[in-house]
Design goal:
The relative contact order is 0.11. The longest helix has 24 residues, at 147-170. 47% of the residues lie in helices and 13% in strands. The chain is built from 6 helices and 5 strands. It is globular and about 65 Å long.
Length: 180
């Protein structure tokens, strides 16, 4: 069983970020220092545990090739999201918390797809398209609103999927003589 499990947790009032449990105890980060069970851990000391927990949660949310998706939704440099870098340096606590919450959602993969769509729409609405974020910054403004674009996109997507299902049922490949 992994030492660190990312999951939704009550948040402390002292400004820390609770990301889940470490050895069964609530794990709260203050900056790059985690506290669990009355012990303090520097992020570098538990970075391998962080990588294992991120891998489990990110696979549930974004699938097995989650690195680029995580970079897109967090506006982090894709290199920062590489497994070897996470295994060496960890990730910011708010990202760990978000992954835990998303992985615990009833449909984590669908939520991951919505997170990706939201990020793409927010970047497009902000006029940044596919450009990279400035160092230490994000191309997604913190107060973005893509509600109408998201509604329009979801509606169009549902119509296309329904149409494809209908078309697929009418265009089955003919049975081969050997299959009959």
């Amino acid at each position: 069983m992994p030492r660190l499990v990312l999951s939704p947790m009550p948040q402390p009032t002292d400004g820390g970020v609770c990301v889940g449990t470490l050895d069964g105890e609530p794990c709260v980060f203050h900056g790059r220092t985690a506290t669990a069970g009355g012990r303090e851990y520097e992020m570098k000391v538990i970075s391998v545990d962080i990588l294992e927990a991120v891998d489990v949660a990110a696979k549930a949310v974004f699938g097995p090739e989650w690195v680029q998706a995580l970079a897109l939704v967090t506006s982090l440099n894709p290199r920062t999201c590489q497994r070897d870098r996470i295994g060496r340096y960890g990730l910011p606590a708010p990202i760990l918390r978000a992954l835990g919450e998303a992985a615990a959602f009833q449909w984590p993969r669908a939520l991951g797809d919505v997170m990706l769509a939201t990020s793409r729409l927010a970047k497009a609405a902000a006029g940044h398209g596919g450009r990279k974020a400035p160092p230490g910054g994000s191309v997604i403004p913190p107060d973005f609103d893509v509600t109408s674009q998201m509604g329009e996109t979801v509606e169009r997507g549902m119509r296309l999927v329904a149409w494809l299902a209908q078309e697929r049922s009418g265009h089955r490949a003919p049975a081969l003589d050997d299959d009959a």
